[in-house]
Amino acid sequence: MIARVRAGEPEAYADLVRAHTGIALRAAAALGAGADAEDVVQQAFVKAYCALGRFRDGASFKPWLLAIVAHETRNTVRTAVRQRTLAGREAALVRAEPLIPESADPAVATLETERRAALLSALEKLSEEHRLVVTYRYLLEMNESETAQALGWPRGTVKSRLNRALRKLSRLLPDFQPREGGEERE
């Protein structure tokens, strides 16, 4: 697909944009872009297009793009006049979720909202490195290799920081139980 874009096929890049917009929006929202998530993603796609000459043949596009999204999100958050609140992040993350919930049961939906709010609150208490590795690995459902590529870290660094982050989260959320079927994937 990248070869087609480099060969001058504009529709090929449009296909890449369509295929990766959802994950890019979730990444921007999870990393704190809030209401600016769409702008961040649009800017990230423009920068990715301009940098395609530096894209390594054979590499995975998704982690490369998400690294650009993370960089753009950090820039946006840094230049924002006011700090994003947890409520703003929660609202942005909810908007990035599918419109049809997994369960139509209001009690289940309420528990999921409470779980998400507790998790986001605990994530706020982690260092940026720990928050990033947990976000990429679990919220964006990337495997260790993709996470390492997106963050520009060695895979061993991803493993060690993820381990430390999960230990901290377990202390911050002692009653937090993972969802059924939430096994790790590689």
How would you describe this structure to a colleague?
- With 186 residues, this protein is an all-alpha fold.
- It has helices at 2-6, 10-30, 37-50, 61-79, 86-96, 106-124, 128-139, 144-151, 155-172.
- The longest helix has 21 residues, at 10-30.
- The chain is globular.
Approximate helicity band: 55-70%
Outline the biggest β-sheet.
Answer: none
Count of DSSP H/I helices: 9
Determine the mean pLDDT: 81
| First-last Cα distance | 24 Å
| 3D shape | globular
Helix-strand topology string: HHHHHHHHH
Number of strands: 0
Poorly predicted ranges = 179-186
| Secondary structural class | mainly alpha
Based on CA atoms alone, the radius of gyration comes out at: 17 Å
Q: What amount of the residues lies in strands?
A: under 5%
Present the secondary structure layout.
Elements: H1 2-6, H2 10-30, H3 37-50, H4 61-79, H5 86-96, H6 106-124, H7 128-139, H8 144-151, H9 155-172
Helix pairs in contact: 2-3, 2-4, 2-5, 3-4, 4-8, 5-6, 7-8, 7-9, 8-9
What are the defining features of this structure?
single chain; 9 helices
Short description:
With 186 residues, the chain is mainly α. It is 68% helix and 0% strand. Helix 2 packs across helix 4 and helix 7 packs across helix 9.
